Amino acid sequence: MTTAVITAALTGPIATKEDNPNLPTTPQQIAASAHEAYESGAAVVHVHLRDDAGRPTANLDIAKQTVELIEETCPVLIQLSTGVGLSVPFEEREKLVEARPRMASLNPCSMSFADGEFHNPPSGVRRLAARMRELGVKAELEIYDTGHLDVALQLVKEDLVDSPLCFSIVMGVLGGMPATPAALVQLVQRLPEGSHWQVIAVGRRNLAMTAIGLAMGGNARTGMEDTLHVRKGVLAKSNAELVSRLVDVTRSLEREPASVGEVEGRLNLPSL
Predict the structure, then answer these.
(1) Which of 2, 31, 64, 117 is most buried, by the most CB atoms less than 10 A from its CB?
(2) Using an 8 Å Cβ cutoff, are 90 and 17 in contact?
(3) How far apart are the first and last CA of the chain?
(4) Is 271 among the domain residues?
């Protein structure tokens, strides 16, 4: 098997410091957490932004500051979330790619998301995909349900997303696919040959499903966006602790964490 790309999702749009006081929310905290995650084995950090009140934000100045701070502290690949939060309009979210991260999420479909709605209009998604391609920002296609894959592949057919394709299979969100081995196998079998993919499983299913994905030859993501606990009833002290746990799982399956250079090569990321 090849080495496995480990991604650390540092903050997310939902949890607060009341849920876990170790959650990074300011640009400085996020940058420090990114550095620690990188030192623990993550080649990619998935970044959500918060405002001064700790709420999800698409403020471009905050995005640029956060990207710059992370780049100053370590060479980890920055994957900026354009999902941001359910309350943030799509027109604000799409502007975040102007911060010029190496990668950014691209959500192909609208959907029910627990008690809310995740709004990704087709025309806006195509506009964002085209702008990402212009800027050389690699698209991370987030697939929450089986039909989302069909829409993502249509974007490829329309020449809006470059190969090699990079998929995140998001499991366990109410309104999307369940976090089960059967659902994962079904979707992975439909991915185009040569695709790079990782499992994102939410909450208590995080470790089990990421381990299954690794055993299947995929990549894996962890971090305080996906789970606030390092084990049942024990809050994670940091994103680095969660990354270290996932690195141990990776090595137990006789795989090693991929380096930043390896990921750049596999995804054909433009040189800085």
Answers:
(1) 31
(2) no
(3) 29
(4) no
